[in-house]
Amino acid sequence: MGKNDLKIISRLMFRLLPMQVLLGLVNSINGIVSSFYASHYVGMEAMSAMGLYAPIAMLFNALGTMFAGGSAIICGKYLGKNEKEKIQDVFSMDLTLSAAAAIAGTAAFIVMGAFSLTGSITSDEAVRAAFDRYLLGQAAGIMPMMLANQLPGFLSIENRGNRTTAASFACVIVNLISNHVLVKMLGLGELGLSLAASAGMWILLAVQIQYFTTKKSTLKARMGRVRPGEAMEVIRTGFPGAASFIYQTARGLIVNGLIEKHAGSAGLSAFATSGNVMNLFWPIPTGMMAVSRLLMSVSIGEEDRKTLIDIMKVMFRRFIPLMLAVDAGIIASAPLLGRAFFADTASPVYAMTVSGLRILPLCMSLSIICMHFTCYGQASGKKAYVNTLALLDGVVSVAGFSALLIGWLGIDAVYIANVLNGVVTTLYIIIYSWYLKRHIPRSTEDLMVIPEDFGVDDSERIDISITSIDEVVTVAESIQKFCLDRGIDRKRAYVAALAMEEMAGNVVSHGFSKDSRKHTVDIRVSHRDSDVILRIKDDCVPFDPKERETILDEDDPAKNLGIRMIYGMTDDITYQNMLGLNVLTVRI
């Protein structure tokens, strides 16, 4: 496989990445805004309350991730199999499950905050009172948060990622204005902080979901379409990926207890502040994971071994170097970031915050590896593997190393534990591959431990990329030769070459000229179990050749003759526009 083989998948992943990062940035920027208003206009108890809420928020993130992840994986497989009707059912079911979980969470927050049932979370009475007020405001935002976090993946399927971008900007603006009014002007303290965040979530949901009520949307937001069997399949599929967040809830409670005991409220404030700053950058690795998760699912649905491996190669060759550059920038800016929240640079809380910002970034690049292999294991049904990774990543490593080191290193132990966690999970991935392959992994494919019978063997397929019209005829000859070498009869070998020449040539001649971007046509011909399957994938404007199958102009009978001829000579042709790619599959 040459470098050119990675171009389409790499471009696609980076095209989808900004939308996923923007969604994550909404919560992160809102956290930064809340931290700023809490530290400047409320007090340390408010910062502590935000830190105590983080593990609870993680629990709802786990539920949202379970529904979104399970739905994305199942929908990806349906996309790969071109089963569009089933995607509608999954969409409706996902929203219904998320709404039900949100109703339960809202009720729980109201009861806990109104009746001060939070004594098990903190023993500090002042912090407890602040936390109760903060929880009541957060209750108003559970429903929009749960629903809004489900929609980006489905908007990607509809090729409407710009809707998430608009929603993200609107959410941040509303949150900022609400904080200024509720916290600074009206003095509502912790309640104002959380109500402002909730207001932003409602705007995020409204802008995104409005598209699904329009005639343009192929998916419709219809609540209540839940089949118990399919709902359980979404939960079973999504749970391994969400398990890490569930474990992180337990980890957060344990770590908060350790910090409160060894570093007091100053430690909690520093941990919450450094965490909120880091949350501004965590959407980058989580966005990378979200993009890869959907593409991996599509590849598994198509049994596309090569693309599955290419996704991991992009992660190692493109994503991790990008993340390392971001890490270096955060570390260099740690003192400046710390001063944005704590003007007194001589205070312990400032020193603790800066220390966190110098250590925590180191764990993000390692987390990208863990996230991607978790998604791959989740999509390919490796439940024990994923659950072990989630347990290590979620609670064992961080809580364990924190408990061992905090008496010696203070709050720095918690920061270092997060980095050691990335080392442990990466070692587990390597050791797992080593154990199953019986040798040290020597390639990305080795590390993934893809089953031998998955997809089409290298000898049973040919993969070629076309970048110009001059290459079309040469590639057609290569395809015909491949078919003949495989023992396919001359007629079908000729049809395969002709179909590629006509369909791919049409893309190059017309699709490449629609804009100023560089384009590539990715060609695959596979021969398995007597079937010859031609797949043509390109990143040009949407074009369904089915629309040109019939004669549209009686004055020009030759119009679209090539397309009509191919439809008449082949067994089956299917088209779908998937994640911004035209995918044409021809069965001969």
Main attributes?
alpha+beta, 20 helices, single chain
Question: Overview of this structure, please?
Answer:
There is one protein chain. The chain contains 20 helices and 5 strands. It is an alpha+beta fold. It folds into 2 domains: 3-445, no CATH class; 458-587, 2-Layer Sandwich (Heat Shock Protein 90), CATH 3.30.565. Strands 1-2-3-5-4 form a 5-stranded antiparallel β-sheet, with helices on one face. Helix 3 runs antiparallel to helix 4 (125-139).
Summarize the structure.
With 588 residues, the protein is α+β, with helices and mostly antiparallel strands. Helix content is 71%, strand content 6%.
What is the averaged pLDDT score? 83
What is the makeup of the main sheet? 5 strands, antiparallel
Order of helices and strands: HHHHHHHHHHHHHHHHHEHHEEHEE
Quaternary structure of the protein: single chain
| Spatial sequence of strands, sheet with the most strands | 1-2-3-5-4
- Our count of domains comes out at 2
* Number of DSSP helical runs: 20
User: Given the helix and strand composition, which structural class is it?
Assistant: alpha+beta
| Helix share, percent | over 70%
Shape: elongated
Give the tally of β-strands: 5
Poorly predicted spans: 551-558
Q: Tell me what portion of residues adopts beta-strand conformation.
A: 5-15%
Termini, distance in Å?
26 Å
- Radius of gyration (CA) equals 26 Å
